[in-house]
Amino acid sequence: MTNTTPKKAPSVNFFKSFAMREDNFKMLTNAPQRFPELFTINFGLGKFYIVHNPAMVQHVLQQNHLNYVKDRGYEVLGILLGKGLITNENSASWRKQRTLMQPSFHRESLQRISEVVVSSTGRLLQSWKGKEGTVVNFTHEMAWLTIDIVSKALFTTDVTDEDIQMTWRNINYLNDEASRMLKNPIHFPFSFPLPRYIKARKCIAELDALIYGIIQRRRQQQNPPHDLLQLLMEARYEDTGEGMTDLQIRDELMTIYAAGHETTVNALSWTWYLLKQNAASEKTLQEESIKLAKDRNPAFADLPLLEYGKQVMNESMRLYPPVPAIGRKAAKDDDANGYRIKSGNIIGINITGLHHHPAYWENPFEFRPERFKNFEIKGDNRFIFMPFGAGPRICIGNSFAMMEMQLVNAMLSARVEMELVSKDIKPVPMITLKPGDGIMMRLKKVNAN
Ligand code: HEM
Predict the structure, then answer these.
(1) Domain region containing 55
(2) How many CA atoms lie within 13 A of 427 on its CB side?
(3) How many Å lie between the centroid of ligand 1 and the Cα of residue 8?
(4) What is the number of the ligand 1 atom nearest to the C-alpha of 386?
(5) Structural domain tally of the chain?
(6) What angle do CA 370, 372, 376 make, to 5 degrees?
(7) Pocket (CB within 6 angstroms of ligand 1)
(8) Domain assignment present for 240
(9) Which is nearest to 163 in space by CA: 105, 229, 209?
(10) Model confidence, pTM
(11) In this predicted model, what pLDDT tens digit does every residue of 141-200 receive, in sequence order?
């Protein structure tokens, strides 16, 4: 800790902050214009920092990350998901777990998953065939698609369509329940017989029955498929040479479902919402996609050629970050970038604010995928653009998600004509940034091959 006089953070009084929060997303987006580094909200009992200064974000997420534990949001997730990577707060056990799981997200595994992505997207297009002229909730369609992809990436053919339906229903309910619990600063213990909790416990029980059933059957299988579940079951801790317990595998699988699903759905939804309002960008994407995905299926090896598609995804996640902010709590007093942080203070990393900060982005409110042409997410840029977080707790599924979204978009863009029906969708930031009740599209032409 230094002896210099600490900087004074601009403060917004608690009641005024409510007025600002009338539109939470706007508040996060516009905050840097008024407060270039950060501002605080005083609750009487504690202090809440909303930070969009890259140096301070780097301090919290990387340089002194051990002092910044995950905040209440993750406790709530822990009640519903158990102790998987995202909620694991014990740094030694988290590191052990992350080291064990990392290889499951490496190139070889992603290559296999890319085949699942292409086949599930093909199935979605088939289901759209004959629906030309009708209006679909595009966000729901993407939710169905991504749950299909992740289920098959995890379990190959061990899941039926009914299992996937049930998973989708239950994961959605649990995500919504986590958001409801987060909205209320005080909530009953999860064992309390509230109807909402009873329903949430039923969702967890159904998912548990599916997951444990698959694990048990898999243990008997002679020639198991080479999917994510198998990789997790075969992984061994370096120190003991042992594998994960069934409970640990279950917690990690629930975490992958919960962390990877809604985020990807939102990113895909916002991307098409933006493309439909930016015809030139949509055309450029289409030209690129047609070459690789019109008359044949795109493959993992095509990813470097889907360069504009990647720029589009980055620009969409800059404007509408699927995770709009992440929270940490200071374990001990600290000096962060000249500000005196007290133990117990909450730091909200304002990803949305960083992504719209006028000091780092030219015309920050405009959709311009080309700005990512020569933009590398490293060095100073790492803490300016961070849809997947940053530091040691960066998203383990980021390459999975980028690969999935690039391939899905290439296929949609090459084979489907759609028209945006929704107007002025309001972003709803909870844990993830939802597009209201979903983005409505009219299907005009579908080439399902
Ligand atoms: C567009 C899609 C996605 C976005 C924007 C996203 C964003 C994020 C962010 C911001 C974090 C960091 C949270 C924090 O530091 O508090 C995170 C962590 C995590 N994400 Fe993602 N994610 C996406 C997709 C996925 C997918 C597809 C998976 C799994 C297949 C996944 C699994 C995880 C896990 C397990 C963590 C916790 C990592 C750890 O703490 O070690 N995510 N994600």
Answers:
(1) 11-446
(2) 27
(3) 33
(4) 10
(5) 1
(6) 155
(7) 85-86, 98, 255-256, 259-260, 263-264, 267, 322-323, 326, 387-389, 393, 395-397, 400-401
(8) yes
(9) 209
(10) 0.94
(11) 999 999 999 999 999 877 898 998 999 899 889 988 888 888 777 778 888 889 999 999
